[in-house]
Amino acid sequence: MSRRKLLSSAGILLGAAAVGAVAWRYRPAPDHDRPRLSVAEPFSAAGAGAITLVDIRTPREWRSTGVPVGSVQIDMRRDDFTEALSRALGGNRAAPVALICARGVRSARMVRRMAEAGFSQIMDVPEGMLGSGAGPGWIAGNLPVARWQG
């Protein structure tokens, strides 16, 4: 293969990878029929003790960006996530809880799963920490972030 064809092929592959990365980043979140909150709503409600805000991202993400002030951190990949969430709510699956992730895709998926598991007041924060099609997100919204203590 000539050098020109090789460079051309590499450019096409890099371009396709870039388009795929952008599409992946802005892919729509799974649909659900639960309430969706702006980032300001769970911040205020958690501060007032009216809701439990749960950051479901990974420890690596918590270390990288910090965690929402007033949140509980439970890695969604835990095998015992449902039980850990129930414990965070004092065993009350009817307590109001909002889930936040990076961009709203994982939180939407987990909202559906937790609704099926019997959490009756489960809510989604689709903007996430980093922003999505739903809005700019927690960090860009200048809401307080704490260093993860893990």
Automatic annotation (TrEMBL):
Domain annotation Rhodanese: ranges: 47-147
CDD domains: RHOD
Gene3D superfamilies membership: Rhodanese-like domain (3.40.250.10)
Pfam families tied to this protein: Rhodanese (PF00581)
Protein name, as recorded: Rhodanese domain-containing protein
